[in-house]
Write a structure and sequence with these properties.
Elements (H helix, E strand, L loop, with lengths): L11 E4 L7 H7 L2 E2 L3 E3 L15 E3 L4 E4 L12 E4 L5 E9 L2 E2 L6 E10 L4 E9 L5 E10 L6 E11 L3 E10 L14 E8 L3 E8 L5 E12 L2 E2 L3 E6 L3 E10 L4 E12 L8 H15 L1 H19 L1 E4 L2 H17 L26 H13 L2 H13 L1 H10 L23 H5 L4 H16 L3 H21 L1 E3 L4 E3 L17 H24 L1 H11 L5 H12 L4 E2 L4 E2 L23 H4 L2 H6 L8 H7 L6 H11 L10 H11 L3 H12 L16 H15 L3 E3 L2 E4 L9 E8 L2 E8 L2 E6 L5 E5 L2 E5 L4 E5 L2
Parallel strand pairs: 27-31
Antiparallel strand pairs: 1-9, 2-3, 3-4, 5-6, 7-8, 7-13, 9-10, 10-11, 11-12, 12-20, 13-19, 14-15, 15-16, 16-17, 16-20, 18-19, 21-28, 22-23, 24-25, 26-27, 28-29, 29-30, 30-33, 31-32
Helix pairs in contact: 4-20, 5-6, 5-9, 5-20, 6-9, 6-10, 9-10, 9-11, 10-11, 10-12, 11-12, 11-13, 11-16, 16-18, 18-19, 18-20, 19-20
The chain binds beta-D-glucopyranose.
Beta-D-glucopyranose binds next to loops.
Amino acid sequence: MSDSRFHLDEWKIIETRFEPDRARDSESIFALGNGMMGQRANFEETYSGDTLRGNYVAGVYYPDKTVVGWWKIGYPEYFAKVPNAPSWTNIIVRIDGEELDLAICSLRSFRRELDMKQGLLTRTFEAVMPSGKVAKVTAKRFLSMAQPELAASSYSVQITGGNGKIELIPWLNADVYNEDANYDEKFWENESSTHDGKRAVVVAQTRKTAFVVATALENTFVLNGMPARGKTAITTTGKTASCKFSSDYSDGDTFTVTGYAAVLSSFNHPVEGLAGKALVSAGKAAEKGFDAMLEAHRDAWGKKWEHGDIVIRGDIAAQQGIRFNIFQLYQTYTGEDPRLNIGPKGFTGEKYGGSTYWDTEAFAFPFYLSTADTHVARNLLLYRYKHLEKAIENARKLGFTGGAALYPMVTMNGEECHNEWEITFEEIHRNGAIAYAIFNYVRHTGDNDYLSEYGLEVLVALSRFWAQRCNWSDERKKYVILGVTGPNEYENNVNNNWYTNTLARWTLKYTSDMLEWLRNASNVKYNSVVARTRLDTQSELKHWKEIIENIHLPANHDPGIFLQQDGFMDKIQHTVSDLDPAERPLNQHWSWDRILRSVFIKQADVLQGIYFFEDEFDEDTIRRNFDFYEPRCVHESSLSASIHSVLAARLHDTERAYTLYLRTARLDLDDYNREVKDGLHITSMAGTWLAIVEGFGGMRIRNERICFNPVIPAAWESYSFIIRYRNNPLRVEVNGGTVTAVNLSRAEIPLAVFGEQVNMQPGEEKKFRKQ
Ligand code: BGC
């Protein structure tokens, strides 16, 4: 099924050949992260070939000035970038004066292995030096999941072919840059380095934003398992710090450098004393030792897998694919800090700048909601809550008043920060996804207090935005929303995008309903929300009601579909099967003008709305829309196929769902889009999870009950996953036509499988069969 470059293995990603022209691809695939920092899988030893060096620190960003041809009022000032940060993994290996460099030395063997169960990257190779000596290297490293500011690496070199001299020079490098800088600027300044005799530290500060990052490293050197007796000397040069070890070697000797790194940033610590703190942390890590650190790291990963794993039997490529996706999602976001979020490429590359998009609420949120403790999803909501004032300010800049909020399409700190106006800025539908996530959170967790404490403030501000963004059309005698971009970015500045209008109406209704619910539940809390939002409970709610009842939702009666936007049927109604495969992807072959005029849809748009509000439509309506839009969708966003897959499964078309699922499951591993070199598609990885759990598993939350209606792809023997409902874990296994549910919690779980309702008692196991 898969002609992957990587060996098929349930828990590991394995590469056994070094392909220099795909070096960047592998640097992305083997990337490591722990929520606090991340790095591409750059080689430790010097590599003079093509590479994208990448180390990233969560929360640290640089406001790169936007590139805009014709500046207009309201345009964002900057495009936030996550700066490539000082690196600590570098080691110069010099054997008899020759530097080990895989672009120069010839390779006898090469193997790289990412063990996803324990979050450990291992690389082994045998290289022949120009002198003919052979260096056999084993390099291991991990970014601690247990202590996320710490990391460790172990690098062993065995030399054969005679005696000689070796130098091992681990070094810290703050002289780093971003390839994607808009104006070739350096993002760092005030670099400095120092050492305390045992360990070194480099400190660098981002320009403009003045984030300070201190990266400290302690090294130990071992010869054949015993502390090595060679000479060590630490040198600092301002932007770098190195620790040089030199020794004679005899044929067959093995030297091991172990590095203990601490990466501390002013995002989490006061600037004063940061370098000293980093030195102390690196020292403590060294005291603990590589093995003890690895054990704690492995345990932390064990806990994540215990509840987040999906097991697929009978299809090893699918198993590897979904584990890779889950692994990357956990590497990107751990949910402990409400100031952090999930960048579309996580910590695996520079593209998308590590910023937050609607991807979080629309795609990634359900994964964390279902596989992690409730506080993780809550922190994702709090992230937006904390940005509410800025979202109100953002709306004010565009002419909205009275506490209306427009969240940014792309953000780091709550401010809009993207280059492109029409595409991203007009995608006001993001406001709807944020409201939908609040609804999703509350129905899933039962944490109603979230609404009165935080959620309703956001919902009121969003509703105010929609109420002002609509206008009454005398012509249609309806409210309309003009000049937007829907999720389909292959059309800009359209009128009455069905998805956007539907979300606007739904947000107004949900906000009104939740206000009413709170008024009945607690007058005190209701009054507090009204006071905090200065809501005019008469006129504002009345206006919202009028919009809810009278908003234009474009539809076409002949095929009986919702129209993506006004005028969609004027387009020449081609389908994807009419396209020449050589012209795909369209965005690399067609002019923008041609794309905008064409019927082809970049990603789920109407279908995204049907996915969100499925229960509002009967099956025939869902089918008619699916049958109309799926043949017109080119899925040129990685986010798209998973939503179509969920809907195909809903329509009982398991094989179509499976075909669509395959497009997302191994997107990066098999590099379908030929762009993995830039980084991984982290947010679309969550879509793959949706395709399994909500698609094949048919999971829905309805009437305070968790429901499943599973199907199984023909290629699979069984699959199973654990879902937290109301924070109580429930295991679901689908094996042929039998579903086994086990309540792993200490509380009752209201469940329905194939429509059969049961209240599962703690520890209870029950089998269900489709009647
Ligand atoms: C998609 C957007 C998405 C962005 C970041 C674009 O290609 O069309 O919907 O927000 O990528 O993932």
